[in-house]
């Protein structure tokens, strides 16, 4: 699309936005004024898509591929507007959405997308992801005028956390790992998956792990020496539908078999996409918590 046409469309969008009533919401960049109750919303962040869909809010535009289950109704009514990393600026300029939401992998696109429509970064990352998830639910509730739905969703999340915390109590320590083909990384309490330790009071089998985005590379010997009571496994290839050695095959070796987790049947293969793709989304977190409740619930106390 030619620059002059784009500029004209941007101007029309800006004029329409100026007529809208603004509301202040908390974003990853702090308090931000955005149009209240926007009718046409494009979302490039899987966690935000998860939470917005959980509130019953329609979404006009989504990226593809999108490795999320349970949002078929949202997908059916949404237009594909590029990928997480490469938005389709021409399609968006024609659509003229009232609001664009980015986050995580798409957060780098906030500035260029803001030339088309008001754009907010709703990234959830780092320590205390549960608190951030609650903040995002509240923000979207305010933004879309769905405060009652937001309150109900937050209460459901909190109740699920309490149930999972009770299931985990007294059952030993845990080690969270990500497999990627034949490679393994471990994630500690301050990592992207560490909310399972903090929110549930699940002791770390190996305190002091790196909080690097990609985790701390480990070996099978590390697992044997750490000897976790529980091994919580996330399969990256499964999360994104990629080919590669499955996590169960990767961990099928004598060193892992020596661990308490293996000997007690306490290796838990978590549904990968809710953790790896849409971590921090309300429904995704509750899905993972259900898996934790199911796995730990029948185990005897150590």
UniProtKB/TrEMBL annotation:
Region forming the signal peptide: 1-20
Name of the featured protein: ABC Fe+3 siderophore transporter, periplasmic substrate-binding protein
Residue ranges annotated for the Fe/B12 periplasmic-binding domain, each copy included: 40-300
Ion transport keyword on record: yes
Main location: other
CDD domains, A to Z: FatB
Family listed: Belongs to the bacterial solute-binding protein 8 family.
Keywords, alphabetical: Ion transport, Iron, Iron transport, Signal, Transport
Source organism: Salipiger bermudensis (strain DSM 26914 / JCM 13377 / KCTC 12554 / HTCC2601) (Pelagibaca bermudensis)
PROSITE patterns: FE_B12_PBP (PS50983)
Pfam families: Peripla_BP_2 (PF01497)
Keyword Nucleus: no
Listed Gene3D superfamilies: Nitrogenase molybdenum iron protein domain
Biological processes, Gene Ontology terms: iron coordination entity transport
Transmembrane stretches, start-end: none
Cellular compartments annotated: Cell envelope
Cellular component terms (Gene Ontology): outer membrane-bounded periplasmic space
Domain of life: Bacteria
């Amino acid at each position: 699309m030619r620059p002059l046409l784009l500029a004209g469309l941007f101007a029309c969008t800006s004029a329409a936005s100026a007529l809208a009533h603004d509301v202040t919401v908390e974003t990853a960049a702090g308090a931000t004024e955005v149009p209240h109750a926007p009718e046409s919303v494009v979302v490039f962040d899987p966690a935000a898509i998860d939470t917005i869909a959980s509130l019953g809010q329609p979404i006009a535009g989504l990226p593809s591929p999108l490795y999320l289950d349970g949002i078929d109704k949202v997908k059916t009514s949404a237009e594909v507007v590029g990928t997480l990393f490469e938005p389709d600026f021409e399609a968006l300029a024609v659509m003229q959405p009232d609001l664009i939401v980015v986050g995580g992998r798409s957060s780098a696109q906030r500035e260029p997308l803001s030339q088309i429509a008001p754009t907010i970064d709703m990234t959830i990352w780092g320590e205390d992801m549960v608190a951030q998830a609650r903040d995002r639910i509240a923000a979207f509730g305010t933004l879309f005028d769905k405060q009652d739905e937001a309150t109900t969703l937050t209460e459901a999340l909190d109740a699920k956390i309490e149930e999972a915390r009770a299931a985990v109590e007294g059952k030993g320590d845990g080690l969270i790992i990500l497999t990627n083909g034949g490679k393994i990384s471990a994630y500690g309490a301050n990592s992207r998956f560490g909310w399972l330790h903090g929110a549930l009071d699940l002791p770390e089998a190996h305190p002091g792990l790196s909080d690097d985005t990609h985790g701390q590379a480990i070996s099978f010997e590390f697992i044997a020496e750490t000897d976790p009571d529980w091994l919580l496994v996330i399969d990256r290839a499964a999360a994104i539908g990629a080919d590669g050695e499955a996590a169960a095959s990767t961990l099928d070796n004598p060193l892992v078999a020596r661990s308490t987790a293996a000997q007690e049947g306490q290796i838990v293969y978590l549904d990968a996409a809710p953790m790896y793709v849409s971590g921090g989304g309300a429904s995704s977190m509750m899905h993972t918590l259900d898996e934790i409740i199911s796995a730990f619930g029948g185990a005897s106390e150590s």
